[in-house]
Amino acid sequence: MAREKYGTLPRQDLMAPAIAYAKDGFILDQGDAASFASNAAWLAKDPAAAAIFLKPDGKPYGAGERLVQPDLAASLATISEKGTDAFYKGAIADAIVKASGAKGGILAKADFEQYAVRELKPVSCTYRGYEIVSSPPPSSGGVIICEILNVLEGYPLSYLGAGSAETVHVMVEAMRHAYVDRNSALGDPDFVDNPVSKLLDKGYANDIRDKIDPFRAGVSQDLMPKGFGESKETTHYSIIDNDGNAVAVTYTLNGSFGAGVVADGTGILLNNEMDDFTQKPGVPNLYGLVQGEANAIQPRKTPLSSMSPTIVTKDGKPFMVIGSPGGSRIITITLEAIANVIDHGMNIQEAIDAPRIHHQWLPDTVYVEPFGLSPDTEKLLAGMGYHLDLADSTWGQAAGILVGGKSLAEIEKGGGARYNGAIDSRAKSGEALGY
Ligand code: DON
Prior knowledge:
Layout: H1 2-6, H2 11-24, E1 26-27, H3 30-43, H4 47-53, E2 66-67, H5 70-82, H6 85-88, H7 91-102, H8 109-113, E3 123-127, E4 130-134, H9 141-152, H10 157-160, H11 165-185, H12 196-199, H13 202-211, E5 235-240, E6 246-251, E7 262-263, E8 268-269, E9 310-314, E10 317-323, H14 330-342, H15 348-353, E11 357-358, E12 366-368, H16 375-383, E13 388-390, E14 399-403, H17 408-413, E15 419-423
Helix pairs in contact: 2-5, 9-11, 9-13, 9-14
6-diazenyl-5-OXO-L-norleucine binds at residues 233-234, 252, 254, 276, 305-307, 325-327, 330.
């Protein structure tokens, strides 16, 4: 639908490179190999998945080895030739329904036949003179990024400094308040009357700031869901073309390799997206999110996502394109990259690579990447009442573009490169390319 409405190339041309990568294979990078290694035991449980993603001896593919996916090439070639009905109404849908049924799943042919794309107006807000344009519900990403930015706009982040205890304090409190709203008030807009305008109101951000004690950590248990009066391994890529059209895309199977099940003969992995719903109020999902009724499972409803493909504009022109995988942390990954560029003057690569922090209301914990905070900052935050989880591994794989220079300073000076791409250096996988 995006191609038909906004694209310039025929479907066959756009799909040809993906078909070739599936048919002829591609050489795995260290980041790809690490992902196969950590999911090998899980993939071994499904013979169709193991036949593709593990070597004949059952071992995972290593860096430098070639991954070939002939069934996927055939599925993509059929879609390329016949169009979307070949996926939603043909043999591919039959194979996926069969694979789901074989494992006790409840996917039906009608789920595919009745699927229709919804084109939704993006969520937007302003932040220090920039406009943020991001994903609307059923993703929570855009709303929650904007809610957090609205709160942060009232603090002099640039003066407080990146990674200082005061900056981390106000960021975590903004995240805490916004995630309680995310986890209790938002859901599929066809089912839930999302209080978007209330959550994006600058006055509401002011009310949140009034509740933030400048010297003490908040307590999540004291911050229970409010009534708003409403009824009760992911991939991100950022692109700008020669004409300045910007696209931010986040695509997900939910967990790494989704359900770990391949529909035999198709090369297509089934997702485990049901986990993005509230399976039971109060019970954490894969990403530790504790959510409410607004995101309860219902037929034909879409689960609430955190995906945050985002375009930041300045004076109506693209300034930054950004997004990431990372489950519930996608929102804070994207937000921190934006603040690192706008508030802390980092270049696009530094903004993406800078260590991350994350808070999602519950558990009442500040997650900190390795070397994310200095020891004295950790002590200051602990003294304010924060529980810090000093993680031993990183999260996310952001991909971004800055227009007109590598950093705000270079853009303001003028004469910087037209497009400046950066891919997260956390995992060696993915690239920033220009054509
Ligand atoms: O839509 C969501 O929020 C999740 N399904 C995203 C999962 C994800 O990013 C996994 N990758 N790390």
